Structure formats: C-alpha cells, structure tokens
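Rotation project, supervised by the postdoc (A.L.). Task for the rotation student: set up a whole-complex structure prediction and record inputs and outputs verbatim in this book. Inputs entered:
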Amino acid sequence: MSSIYGKIFKVSTWGESHGKAIGAVIDGCPSGIPLTEEMIQKSLDRRRPGQNLMVTPRKEADKVSILSGVFEGKTTGTPISLMIPNEDQRSHDYSDMIKWYRPGHADLTYDGKYGFRDYHGGGRSSARETAARVAAGAIARQILEHLFQTEILAWVTSVGGEPSDIDPETVTYESIEASPVRCPDPKASLRFEEKIKEAKADSDSVGALVTLLVRRPPKFVGEPVFEKVDALLAQAMLSLPACKGFEIGLGFEAAKMRGSKHNDEIYFENGVYRTRTNNAGGTLGGITNGEDILCRMPFKPTSTIGQEQKTAGRGGVNGILKAKGRHDPCVGVRAPVIVESMAALVLIDLVLRQRRFL
Amino acid sequence: MSSIYGKIFKVSTWGESHGKAIGAVIDGCPSGIPLTEEMIQKSLDRRRPGQNLMVTPRKEADKVSILSGVFEGKTTGTPISLMIPNEDQRSHDYSDMIKWYRPGHADLTYDGKYGFRDYHGGGRSSARETAARVAAGAIARQILEHLFQTEILAWVTSVGGEPSDIDPETVTYESIEASPVRCPDPKASLRFEEKIKEAKADSDSVGALVTLLVRRPPKFVGEPVFEKVDALLAQAMLSLPACKGFEIGLGFEAAKMRGSKHNDEIYFENGVYRTRTNNAGGTLGGITNGEDILCRMPFKPTSTIGQEQKTAGRGGVNGILKAKGRHDPCVGVRAPVIVESMAALVLIDLVLRQRRFL
Amino acid sequence: MSSIYGKIFKVSTWGESHGKAIGAVIDGCPSGIPLTEEMIQKSLDRRRPGQNLMVTPRKEADKVSILSGVFEGKTTGTPISLMIPNEDQRSHDYSDMIKWYRPGHADLTYDGKYGFRDYHGGGRSSARETAARVAAGAIARQILEHLFQTEILAWVTSVGGEPSDIDPETVTYESIEASPVRCPDPKASLRFEEKIKEAKADSDSVGALVTLLVRRPPKFVGEPVFEKVDALLAQAMLSLPACKGFEIGLGFEAAKMRGSKHNDEIYFENGVYRTRTNNAGGTLGGITNGEDILCRMPFKPTSTIGQEQKTAGRGGVNGILKAKGRHDPCVGVRAPVIVESMAALVLIDLVLRQRRFL
Amino acid sequence: MSSIYGKIFKVSTWGESHGKAIGAVIDGCPSGIPLTEEMIQKSLDRRRPGQNLMVTPRKEADKVSILSGVFEGKTTGTPISLMIPNEDQRSHDYSDMIKWYRPGHADLTYDGKYGFRDYHGGGRSSARETAARVAAGAIARQILEHLFQTEILAWVTSVGGEPSDIDPETVTYESIEASPVRCPDPKASLRFEEKIKEAKADSDSVGALVTLLVRRPPKFVGEPVFEKVDALLAQAMLSLPACKGFEIGLGFEAAKMRGSKHNDEIYFENGVYRTRTNNAGGTLGGITNGEDILCRMPFKPTSTIGQEQKTAGRGGVNGILKAKGRHDPCVGVRAPVIVESMAALVLIDLVLRQRRFL
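Outputs recorded:
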C-alpha cells in the first residue's frame, strides 16, 4: 500500500468504502493559510453521489471535520487531519462479493496481494476513497488560487463515444456544474444523459472521456528527469480508479505529425515568453512554460454491473455473478472534481519543492 | 531536479549531452546477482545512435564501466556506479542554441527554472540522458528475467500515422531488431523508413507510436492507491523525452465502451486465475493480475529540425532559428529499448517493495 | 513539518495537545496481522499521565479507536487510521502562554518558523503528540514479537543524577511497571520518587536517564551507509521531546578505550555467530548482529516549571513568566513506553525493507 | 543499502575501499552557485590519510573530478557527479580478511546481510567511503557560508580519555589545523599524540571524542516531529563509521539537572531574540533558535588492530586473527572534517525544505 502522495505537501489518505470513516492527513502544508470546513465541504459536495439520476443513489452526506492543524481559521503548519464519516453502509447489498470476484474489479488482485480483503464493497479500490483526495485537494487549490490565481477545471468530453463540441477557452465552472453529467456543451450533455440512461436500463455501464484544463498554472515547475510535471500528472490520473490513460497537449495525435507542425512558435511580448499555439499542453522538458495545461483521460465503464457475468470465485470455482447493489452507470461523470483535486496536489507539491538559488 | 527513481531499487542518473560523461548509481540492488559490463553493454548497444540512416549519425561508442558494487562477477548489495564517457562532443554544431530558444524544446523552461543552462545541446533534457536509464534498466531486467522469466519488449507501431499490423502475441526480440525502425511488421517497417526519409529530406521530423509488452510480469505487484502499477508506468513513460501520452489495455478506447464488453471474464484453470480477454492490459485496481502488460505511448516528432522556425531568444528578442547539427528525424525509433528499461525499473522496485506477511 | 516516519511501514501522526483529537495513520502495514483496539490500548495505558503523583494529574482517558484497515480482527494491508480524542482540554491554565515564550520550550521557534502558533499548550511540540507514536508502535511491536519473539524494554536508570543498580539481563516488564517511576531497582525507585517530589515541592523539574534494551532483535537489519540501525535509533530518540542525546553499547565510554578492550570477541557455537561481550550494543557496521541492542538517552528536566523565570514575549518585550497549569515534574518517567515504541517503529521498517536476493 | 541522503539536496554516495573509484552524485543542488574542483579538493585534503604519523600511511591522492552539473564555473541545477579514483589499492595486505571476521568490524554482518562481500578491505563500511561525503559536503558548506555566513567547525576534544581545555567561542580553523590530531588546545594536542603513539606501539588503537560547533546556523530550520534538526544531526553522526553516540547542548548532563538551571533565559535585544546561556545547544523543539549548535560524538577505537585477537571465520571456524596492513590507530583524528561535512548536508537540506507561506 502506498497511500501517501507528495514530497513536501504530503497527503496520507485512509479509509474503506464500508468502514467507519475515511480521511486524509496533510503534512507539510504551509502555515498562515485561511482554512475552514466550509471551504473543503464545497469541493466534497461536487463529488458527492446521489445528486441526480446519473450517479449512484447512495446518500452520503460526506461531512468533513478538521481535527487538527488549524487555529483561529488559519493553518498552523502542523498536520491537518480531515475526517469524513461513512454514513450509508448498506453492506448487505454486497453479499455476493464474498463469493465471486467481480470481472474488471480489484477483488482478485487484492486477495492475491494481501491474502484476504474486506468484501463489503471495494475497500480501498472503491471510488469512495477519492473523497479523501478531494478534501485534501481543496486545500491545495486554495493555495494555488491565492498564489497564482490558478484555475483548475475538468469536464466530461465524451460518454460512450458520443462527441461534444467544447472550446476549452470558454469553459467555466458554472457551465460545467450546470450539466448533470458535467459537460459544458448543453446539447452533448443531453446526449450523454441519454447514453447513461440507456446503459442503466440495460443493467450496464458506459465509459467516458474527461478533459483537464489548468489556467494560469505556476510557471517553471516540474522536476526533470523523473518527476516532470507531465509525468506526475500522468501518475496522479492513472492512480484514479477506472482511469486507463493520459495524454497532454496533442497527445496521441503528436505521434502522427511532423515537427514543423507540432512545434509551438515562441515569441516575446510584454515582458513574457509565450507560444502562438499550445500543442505541447503547457509543458516543455517536463517544466511548465506558463501556457494552459491541457490533458485528457479515458475512464473505463464501471466494472460492477447488474448483468449476469461469468467469473470465478474464491477457492477456485467458476460460475455466474449477478451483482446487486447500487452502482454508478458512468464513473466518469464523477471524475471531474477528483481530476481537478489530483492536479492541484501535483502542482502544489512541485511549487513547494521549487527553489531557485538567490 | 529529481533524477532519482525508485524507493528500494533506487537509480540516480547524472550527466549532460555534452559533458565529460553520463552515468547512473543504483542503490538498493539485491546482492548475489551475476553482473558484467557486457550484460549492460548489450542493452546500450540497442539504444546507440548511428546504427543506420534512420537515426542521428553521431558515433557514440557508449562504453559502460562498472565502478563499484560488483565483486567476482556478482552484485554485492552496495551501490553500483555505472559510467559512460561522452566521446563525440562536436559542440560547435550547436552554436545557434546560445542565442535562440528552440521551439518545442526545453531551452526556455530550463532558463526560466534554473536561471541559465549549458547551451551545448540539450543538457539534461537531451535524449542522451536516457543512456543512463538503459544501463540501469539492464540490471533490473536481468533480475526480473531471473526471478520470473519476465520478458519485456517494445516496438514501433506507427510512424507519422502510418499503420502496421502486429499481433503482440507473436512479437519477438529478433523480429523487432531485424527492423531498422524497430517495427516487427516487415511491410510496415519499409513504409516507416520511407516516412522518416521523407521527413529527413524535408529537414523535418516525424512522430511515432510505441507499444510496450511485458510477458510473465511479476504477479500482484503495484501499491495502491497512489503507486498503482499503471500509474507508475505512466509516470515512467511520460518522464521520457518527447513522450506525450500513455494508455494501458484498451486505453482511450475504453471510454467509448460498455462495461459488459470491457470487463474481462475471470476463470480458474490449472490452479491459476486467468482472464479470457485482456482488455485491462494486465492490471486490476493498480495491481498486476499476471496477464501480459500492454501499453502504448505516442512520441512527438523531434523538436530540433533543420527548417527555419520563428522563435524568441534570450534577452527578449524575436527572430528566426535554422538549427544546424545532426538530429534524429524520428526519436520514436530509438524509444523501444528505453521504454523497456523504464518498465523494468518500475517493476523491479515494486517487486522489492512487495511483502506479504508470513 | 515532517510528521511521517518510515519508508515501508509509514506512520503519519497528527494532532495538537489542545485540539479535538490526536491520531496516526499507518500505511504499509502487512496484511493478516491480528489487531484489536485492546492491543493498542494496553500500550497507551502505560503512557497515560495521571497514574500517580509522579506525573501530571491531567486525566486523559486516551481511548483509541481503529477507523480503518482492520477487518475481522486482522489487518488488511490498507491504511490503519487510529484516533484518540482529547478529552481534558483545560486550556485556560495556559493563558500566560499567549504572551510569553517559555524558556526551554519550542514556543519561540514555532513562532519564528510558522509565523504564529496555537498557544493553548505546546501544540505539536507537546509530549501529548507521542501518544500517537505509542499507538502506532503497539502494532509494530506486535509484528516483531510475532516474527522474532523480539522483546523491547525501556526503563529509568537515573533521576537527577541519582544512580541505580540494574542488570539489563534480569529486567522484566513486571519489574519496570511495578515502579511508579519505571525503575526496576526498587531502592533506586524510592530515591527517584523522592527526587521528583522534591523538585515538585520546589515548583521545579528534574531530568532523567532512560535505558533501552531490545532482546532477540531482528538479525542483519540496518541499511548502511545513511540508515544504519544505530543512526535510525538515534534519530528516533532525538525526535522525542526533551531527549538530548543517544549512545549505543558503551557509547561515550568507547572514546576512552583501547581497541583491544573494546572489540567484542566473535565465536561460532551451535550454528550461530555470537560475541562474548556486547560492547557494541548489538550492531556492527550499522547492521544488527543478533546480540541485544542496548542504548541510553538523557531526558532534560521539563521546561515548563512553576517558578518565576525571566524571559521574553511576542512583540519584543522582556519580563517574567510564572507558569500555571499542571506539568510533569519529570518527563523522563513517561519516556520508557515511548522509547520502546520508537524502537519498534525503527526496527519494523528495517525488517520490511530487508530483502536478500534468492 | 541506503546510500542516499537528503530530501531536496540529495547525495548519493558510491564506492568501496578497494574498487576503481568512489564518488557522489548530488541531485537537487540549486543552480547558479560558484563551484570548482579546487573548492572541493580543499575539504578532501583535510580528510586525506597519510598527512602525518598519526594516521594511516596510505598515500591516497584523493583527486576529485566534477563530471557533470557545472557549467562555466557555476552549478546548473542538474545532478553534480563527483569521482575520486582509488589510487592505492595494496589489497594483498588484507589477505587474512578472506578467512576471519575482524572483531568490532562489519565483516560478519555484511556476510550475514548480503550473503558475501568484497573481502579486500572494509568495502562500504570502510572509512574511505566518507571521502565521498566530504566532497558532497564541501558544496553544502559553500552554500551555507554564502547564504548565512555559517561556519562549521569540528575538533578532537579527547583521546583515550585524556582531557583538553578548549573554549568553543575561541576555536578557529587555524587552531584546529595547526594540530596533527586536530585539537585546538596545543598542550592537549601533544598529550593526544602521545596517546596515539603509545597505542600504535602496542599494535593497538584508541578512541576519541569529537566536538561539533556551528556558528551562525540557518535560523528556524528543522522539521518536527520526526526530522527535528537534532534528530537529523544524530542520525548523520551515527551514520559515520565508529561513531557510538551523540549529544547536543548539555546532553547527558541534562539528565542530572533541575529545569530552573537547565532552561536558557530568553531575552529580546537589537531586534533579535537570544538566550543568555546555551544549554540547549542551539535548538528548541527540534528547530534552530539561532544560537550556536554544539554537539559531541564519541568515536570508538579503530577495530582493526595488529594484536592477535580470538575470533571466528566463515564456515563456522573459531581461531586467531593477527591483522596485517596499515590502519589508523585513532580514527577519531580524521573525523572532524567528516563531521563538519555531515552537519552541512543536514543543514542545507533543511534550509531547502524550509518554506514559510507568503
């Protein structure tokens, strides 16, 4: 298990989907930063399931408590302990999980690695674990916004292959949050809803593509050669449940191009170096160049589905699983705030490690 | 700078493209492993430029020396220091670099981050740095092969958008090495050569897509939640110069699919759990399940090209750069052995961190 | 702040003396280890103040809860979150702390480093923080005992310079716990009590010397050159509040000796290498040799005392502080279980990092 | 093996006493710092054996080369690779080492941990390894001096129990270097020489006590709770060959004192908080308070001696070893520059990790 992220701004997350609580401890947060439970709660509320038909109807209040590290409304520089009680633990829905390994899920590999597991839900491999990341990420975002006016946005670009028409330049939080499927293109949003409803009606699930945009990122951060900003973002995204890939800038398209087309022209204007285009996605040599960071990540369809599936179980049996319980038909729809939070954790740690001599 | 990779098998690389030498120190290598300079040299020779017209004609002998950590042909458990002298340092070819920031290159961001840089070539952002990774990776591969008969292969799947027809199941080292562009499909190989020659004739460069395959990977390795095997592979690949993305299993395709199609059926046979299909690419919940690991990475076209390019330079000037010197028209062609080496470094560290109680 | 200890068995502690709670998250604990709240509580109860007149009369119940990482009485390999509510927060006793920097305390340096601090007590520099270490250490001890029958004992060897007569070979838990000042020499114990009572009567405090003994330590653990077992033990001990030194084996006496006297004769008997004497204190070259580990640590007198003391305060004033509140007259008396816990955390992490090839 | 020190200023040392070379790679050094081989050589020359009769007559030139990371006389922010060839490898002197485990040495534990070892000398446990630390430390000292005018001095306070009379306030580099045994008290220096000559005449060795003084240390550095400045100094010192203890400020004396005597009075004067006395040794709560750092470390007598010693050997034999070869009769005499270097590595890393928000 490696549930600690970061070298200076270190986030240690804990908790299973069906335990008493989940939480995070942030060690290394700078002192003097305004912080209240409300600030964190706002991010958590965006992640919470049960907001609409698109996502699982579990009613998790997800109320965060700050247990340490804050005094008179400001961080003290000491570890910040955040706790979110698990309120809705209807674990009898998961009874079949004791016997069968869900295809596409981590049941088998956890049993293989750890010898046994808490079979009441996904344990640490559950998407519930990401609530702790969102809580910690809220603090990181606050600092980035304060220091650099950094704005971090993520949205759903495609569901089940259905396209959308979105100009990253014009996307706002409001346009994302206005959509129940977090797609700022209203027409595509309706089509995405349809796709998800169809999957749900079929007791099935569907994949989604998520875009991440960082406006006004901290400049010249990234630690070559192994901890380039794009490498750390890729790690952070692939550490999310169901994420199967990552690309930055033109990404996979770059493999098809000529250098003369791909290279972004550099120019100097008003005291700043800029690029005319942003094919690179905001990074050169693993260091941010000040242009927007732009990434895309595919999220696979939720593995737990209501249809019958052939599978094997503990003790070497083969058979059929028909999963009960409530599951998101499209996990990608909940991914945006989590993606934003991970991006914030990556960037704040790089900012705090940044140190130019004199 | 963060030039150290790994938690237990720690690789510290050093050296610039035009300095005296480059090298790596491996701290934490288990003792008792047979190791000679020849074993490492074999991997280095596969990376070396100047082997054919496809790659830069720089003649780097890349002769590795083991300076410590090996006694009577076996590792002693102490740090292994590897050094590769830089023999061909024709740095006058790079004179324009003093003045101009090459578009698509790290010149600007290094100046921004560190205040100045060694302008004789790419310094740490040069592909030359990867030779040290290959040398260290050769040791990791040796251990993985010894312990698990793990076989790590990477090849070029596409150049400039040109497709190939390759069944990962049948790919061999020989079929990859037989191709000057490391493409095991002989017909595609010819077309790739053509693409690269065309780009070269145009003083241009071209991108490529690389596939990574790990046969018989160590089982049940990966450290959720932040250091899942796929997350660490993604970081490792994006840490390579010119790599712009990563996908595992079906990757971006998964975003378009239904769960009922994407989930791999699990079955138990001959004492082992297997999956019928391998859409997941060898990992579930960030832990290897024993199936082949299968990833793809796009490499952008070489940024240094011989064509005239508009750009800016130090001191805030705007102008035109026409790069001299010798450059790979397609860096992707040299990527396979580097990709294999990084995969080996990721896996060996996870193996050594793996510890199940009793 | 650096509140995370360990590379594999990672302990992240949090909480201030006067916040809502304190706690620890253990990431990287092996799976399958029996663990209940009672097991941890036993260690905590040994640390708790208020047990007798020797220590501060604060009544802290120190009831630990396990919030995650344990299923059906066994660790699952996922992060274990431990929480201990702060019940007795009579913070009005500490009112003077707002104004004055207590001599010998961290008030000044926390203000200097973090800009401000929670002035209700010592915050993170309070001895209360060590309760989280004891809770985490209880798990480490459990594993060491299970794997190697390791026994870790610490006791008070001297108070205020008063000597004792103790043969480490014969010390037992019972003989330590039988003494209110944790001194297994009953006569010295009485004299130590007297010393402490005298100090208390004078509104003063007194220092103490603590001995650590590890019987049947894990063999051949320690990671030269920077993480030798003795180096990590020294760090662990000096990380404790009030600890001002560390010595192992003959320690400072060794500086006066000849090699012919100091060297421990090695002999082979019954299939094992042993040493006739144990001047080295159980380590050679930073690696345990299987002999008992024997260390000594001085703990300075509690810095908060009831006497008037000249000091300075915030805003550059100079004046007189007469501290109110309840304070241990001798922190050393509470140190043994904390010292044992830190030794356990050092050893378990080295055990889990230990990996010999094949 | 753990041969990497530091979180930001990371030093990776390598090399055995009888291999081709030893060296260090520094990753994370800030850019723009003036650095030449001569600057490093000066420190190395102070460590070199063969300077006088007091130390081993091995003639090691210890000529350092900078292989990377420096451009036009300044650090570039990229890894700095330092190499020191091993010139004098008269390994036939060590022939007995193949058979016998030297008492007090790491031969046995290295064999136990790693399965075998390079028996030509001490390998990584040799004091020769510290030359790489001194080389890396020279860079750290340079930065500390530049930023804070920090002065780091260490000297020999006692040899074989023989006392000296030294006022730390008045010690200078010159007074230390003027003494062949690095003791700034000229009379004691003569007595120490005598002690060492006697030991040598007896084919024996003798221990020594070393004092470390840091003037104008960086203020408010140290990362509680686990990486307090005193805890990291203790680890650094105990990581040195032959070091058996550590104390800071009054150290072990503090265990005998009353709080009213031990506490240092704080006062504010000329815009700065100071303490009247410095019993704490420059640290409160693990954070430097700006007063001098003052520590003492005992170094045991060299374990390899020319006298006959009973011991055991590989394969379970018991017998007699009479070590040949040239050995320092008093390793403590060479310790000062190494102690200074380790202190510099501890402090520079804490400085670079220090980050107060806004």
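Student's summary: Chain A has a mean pLDDT of 92.
Supervisor addendum: Helices of chain A lie at 37-47, 107-114, 130-148, 173-177, 186-201, 229-238, 259-262, 335-353.
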